[in-house]
Amino acid sequence: MGWHRELLIGFDLETTGTDPREARIVTAAVIEVRGGEPQGRREWLADPGVEIPAEAVAVHGISNERAASEGRPADQVADAVAAVLADHWRTGVPVVAYNAAFDLSLLAAELRRHGLPSLHDRLDGADPAPVIDPYTIDRSVDRYRRGKRNLEAVCREYGVPLDAAHDATADALAAARLARAIAGRHPKVAALGPADLHRRQIEWYAEWAADFQNFLRRKGDAAAVVDATWPLREPADERV
């Protein structure tokens, strides 16, 4: 059958910014998808506890007023999202996240920030896996394709509908559908089991990071460093 025809868990966060070490969760979605169709979903709106910058509001549409009045406390949201993901990983179901290194690293930073159990702790020390990242896979299997690689652009490339970009639920569903579409186009991806695909993505991401770091250094930034860690960069200790 192939992993792409089985249950997939789409995951997405909308946040206060673009640095996973500092940004906070605003909305989150975890959606069960089978055969490209949603089977169930969990959605969260958080009060991030900090000001949501205007540029972030313009992207996802969640105002400070709405987050403060309707959102749950940030620690409760981070804890609930992590618990749901860990439950799926314990049963071996793949979690699909577009640019997983951002979303999972940001979630890990939120857990650390609020003194909550880490993803590793929730999995008895195991790594969060399997993770399927259409961004990392597409960049490897179609390396020389021109154009953008954001979710909207790659969905267009594979004919995946995305009606409400930067809505966490819509993006989570699109990511799962996109993973399925990539596997449908590239049999070598479909033929891998989820655990093997997870390991291959670690390699593919490291290869991309090394290439991009070399490119930046050739362009004159001699000190450029591109983090090759995928799918989760452990955060440093932070205070709330």
What's the layout of helices and strands?
Elements (H helix, E strand, L loop, with lengths): L7 E8 L9 E10 L2 E11 L6 H7 L3 H7 L1 E2 H17 L4 E2 L3 H14 L5 H4 L8 E2 L1 H8 L9 H8 L9 H18 L1 H4 L3 H25 L22
Parallel strand pairs: 1-5, 3-4, 5-6
Antiparallel strand pairs: 1-2, 2-3
Helix pairs in contact: 6-10, 7-8
Explain this structure:
There is one protein chain. With 240 residues, the protein is of the alpha/beta class. 47% of the residues lie in helices and 15% in strands. It contains ten helices and six strands, in the order βββααβαβααβααααα. A hairpin with a 2-residue loop joins strand 2 and strand 3 (37-47). The radius of gyration is 17 Å and the shape is globular. The N and C termini lie far apart (46 Å).
Keyword list:
single chain, 240 residues, alpha/beta, 6-stranded mixed β-sheet, globular
Beta-strand fraction estimate: 5-15%
Largest sheet: 6 strands, mixed
- Please count the beta strands (DSSP E, at least 2 residues each): 6
Mean pLDDT: 96
| Alpha-carbon Rg, integer | 17 Å
How far apart the termini lie comes to: 46 Å
Order of adjacent strands in the largest pleated sheet: 4-3-2-1-5-6
Outline: globular
SS class = alpha/beta
Total helical elements: 10
Helix fraction bin:
40-55%
- Residue runs with pLDDT of under 50 for 5 or more positions: none
> SSE order in H/E notation?
EEEHHEHEHHEHHHHH
In short:
The protein has about 240 residues and is an alpha/beta fold.
